[in-house]
Amino acid sequence: DESMTREQAVSGFQSHDPTERTRGQYRSLSFSASRRSVMPAWVIDKYGKNEVLRFTKNAALPIIHYPNEVIVKVHAAGLNPIDISMRGGYGAATMAMKRDPLNMNQSGSEFPLILGRDVSGEIMECGLDVNYFKPGDQVWAAIPPWKQGSLAEFVVLSANEVSHKPKSLRHVEAASIPYVAATAWSVIVNTGGLNKDNGSKKRVLILGGSGGVGTLAIQMVKAWGAHVTVTCSQNAERLVRDLGADDVVDYTAGPVEKQLQTLQKFDLILDNIGGETEKWALDLLKPWNGAKYVTLVTPFLHNTDRLGLADGMMQSGVTIGCKVLKHLRKGVHYRWGFFAPSGPTLDEISEMVDAGKVRPVVEEVFSFAQVPQVFQKVEQGHARGKTVVSVIEDQKE
Q1: CA distance 4 to 22
Q2: DSSP-assigned states of every residue in 92-117
Q3: Which end of the chain is more exposed for a tag (fewer CB within 10 A), N or C?
Q4: DSSP of 203-270
């Protein structure tokens, strides 16, 4: 039972399987990386538009610094809108603090920076405290934004951020899921309070349902028995209906709020769009029923970049404080949703994938040489699912 193994592994559980014993003696596949210190990667040396992307064969090879870390050989990488934002410097102040809490490095020390938040690949090396994984395991992960990303040959991660990838998916399919799944889970389960035990018959509205987070969120809440309404443009309607959406509202066919006001009220609203939507969306919630509106479009990182960390947190705190109070008067809850990296979350998603409840929605796969085109494509918006980079062609699959 795999669900036990992570906990057993954390508590230092040792197997009595004779093949296991030999593993402790070698903790890495004898891969040529041990004899070299550089790898191919796409990096940026400063923040800006697409021209800051640079391909290099001399990026520093990641090494294990902590005993709970693993090195993953990247087979496929997924791109998300946050990569476009980060290329332009979004979140730089907050990320710098996460990377260097004591502020010992000079500014700009994050460069050359490797972007890419999704990875599917193979474990090459494990720190000495890692018992749940072994070299050769096929894994996937959502990489936290303050760590070096997946547009490279190798990436180093904490074992608690990594999960065994679904057996039913190829790497290029698997790489489309972790970041949006971790985000959707964080927003729906942790912030929205919906899960497989209480989801039945709940009414969920997803504003902007055809992108990465939306396409995953639809499938998740449908698997838990919820009723799902989605807004998207007309040409994405078939996609979201195929994923299980019950009601689809076409935002190109007139004001969305007018169309939505004719429907029953909702228990949970997930907002991928932001801006003007919060002015009217909260009125669509069931009052005094624990109903929640969760937005993924938060000013938090933007404020900390603009105002510095302390003032930015103050400003964000004031903003959310006002909004929370304003809406509590109407008996509905206003929340901000954030991405939270989590291996155990991905374990659950992996089970849902292998059980046929969640499938990858891959719009296009690019080669490693085409990374600048991938950024251009994601930057244009209007996504139908996810865009993926095949870093090494899947030889095994």
Answers
A1: 22
A2: HHHHHHHH-TT--SPTTTTPSBP---
A3: N
A4: EEEEES-SSHHHHHHHHHHHHTT-EEEEEE-GGGHHHHHHTT-SEEEETTSS-HHHHHHTSPPBSEEE
203 and 229 in contact (C-beta within 8 Å)?
Answer: yes
Q: What is the chain's Cα-based Rg?
A: 21
Name which CATH class applies to 180-336.
Answer: alpha beta
What is the DSSP code string of 151-164? SBSEEEEEGGGEEE
CA distance 140 to 75: 10
Q: What is the DSSP letter of 166?
A: P
pLDDT digits (tens, 9 = 90+) for 98-130: 888 887 888 788 899 999 999 999 999 999 999
Task: Report pTM.
Answer: 0.86
Write out the CATH class of domain 2-177+361-390: alpha beta
Residue spans per domain, the chain: 2-177+361-390, 180-336
Tens of pLDDT, residue by residue over 64-97, are 999 999 999 999 999 999 999 999 998 888 788 8
